[in-house]
Amino acid sequence: MKLLITGGTGYIGSHTVVELLSLGHDVVIVDNLVNSSELVLSRIEKITGKMPQFVKADICDRDALNDIFSTYKPEAVVHFAGLKAVGESNDIPLSYYHNNVTGSVVLFEVMAAHNVKNLVFSSSATVYGENNVSPLDETMATSATNPYGRTKLMIEEILFDLAKSDSDWSIINLRYFNPIGAHQSGLIGEDPNDIPNNLLPYVSQVAIGRLAQLQVFGDDYNTPDGTGVRDYIHVVDLALGHIKALETLATLSGCQAINLGTGNGTSVLQIVDGFSHISGTKVPFKIVPRRAGDIATVYANAALAKDVLGWQAERNLTEMLEDTWRWQSTNPQGYTE
Ligand code: NAD
Ligand code: UDP
């Protein structure tokens, strides 16, 4: 299949491109590199033996998107491009709404104009808000607690409306839980621009010595050890979920939301212990107050993905931590020449 991958040089996008190229799909990436490096492309080539086609452009740029659709004629789109830092979204909400929501609407308009109506969208478990009790399933009410989450919710709702208006659209909103890990080669992985917001990149940068100490946000939650519990999923499993979603679009009309998670919960202290063991470095941490907006426990009901996509996560936590450490220890400064 000929595919357009927005945000394809990013963390999840690059792992998905690797799996797509390995299966023989034809891929063009559009990314403005606001949160990724062009060096990803040569790393993808090293892994797959194929250099993906790449256009440096912003998804808000309608002319650039029109050119891409005219030139490459993709049959389907996987839409990863977006800004994703929750804290930053509170500080610069308009940038988030413009980039994520306006950018998505421009993309969908250009897709419609070129009669490309097959789409897989990167949504998030954040759309379950704070009022549902895990395991979270797709029938539960959605809500958002910050501008980033609201952009995901808005885009999902736009896509449900779009599919209702025109039955030619086939759309899957994949609600990711907590992607971690890296490709087994150690050649691609997560490389945050600034100080990481998420737990795993923070822990691995402490282990490699770039950061002094992890702050554990609260140990007084109603969880087995008092620290927050999340559903961590290997990024390669997540990438494979996109392949299954793309295959499923052919038999699906309308718009459907599907969780991509493992169904298992792991606490912050379990991650710290596991990472210390695997890296051979005791990760120093201190307990600090809870982070505003955090929920005690979040994990998926992963049954729908199995039923509809024929997909389930295969990689366990040890593999997730080992692969994270291989990436971090062989690329201590991330993507550099
Ligand atoms: P990432 O930042 O590594 O990748 C996103 C890519 O999009 C980057 O390469 C960035 O340069 C690009 N981009 C951003 N705005 C753009 C624009 N206007 N035009 C063109 N390119 C643009 O993030 P990721 O972790 O790979 O996440 C991919 C998607 O999955 C995002 O939409 C994110 O919100 C969503 N998601 C991520 C997580 C997570 O924990 N990583 C969880 C749930 C959902
Ligand atoms: N967390 C932490 N210290 C950090 C980053 C995260 O203790 O520096 C905790 C956070 O409170 C949550 C878990 O780790 O319980 C996962 O946080 P992350 O931001 O990675 O994912 P999210 O909360 O968005 O699911």
Describe the 3D structure:
The protein is an alpha/beta fold. The protein has a domain at 2-181 and 233-262: 3-Layer(aba) Sandwich (Rossmann fold). The chain contains eleven helices and 13 strands. It has helices at 11-22, 39-48, 62-72, 86-91, 93-113, 147-165, 199-207, 235-249, 268-279, 303-309, 317-330; strands at 2-6, 26-31, 53-56, 76-79, 118-124, 170-176, 178-180, 214-217, 229-230, 232-234, 254-260, 266-267, 285-288. The strands form four sheets. A seven-stranded parallel sheet has the order 3-2-1-4-5-6-11, with helices on both faces. Strands 7-10 form a two-stranded parallel ribbon. The longest helix is centred in the first third of the chain and has 21 residues, at 93-113. The two termini are 32 Å apart. The mean pLDDT is 97. Bound molecules: nicotinamide-adenine-dinucleotide and uridine-5'-diphosphate (UDP). The site of uridine-5'-diphosphate has 15 residues, from α7 and β8.
Spatially, the strands of the biggest sheet line up as 3-2-1-4-5-6-11
Are there runs of 5+ residues with pLDDT below 50, and where? none
Major sheet attributes? 7 strands, parallel
Helix content: 40-55%
Strand content range:
15-25%
What separation lies between the terminal Cα atoms?
A: 32 Å
CATH architecture of the domain at 2-181 and 233-262: 3-Layer(aba) Sandwich
Q: Note the run of SSEs as H and E.
A: EHEHEHEHHEHEEHEEEHEEHEHH
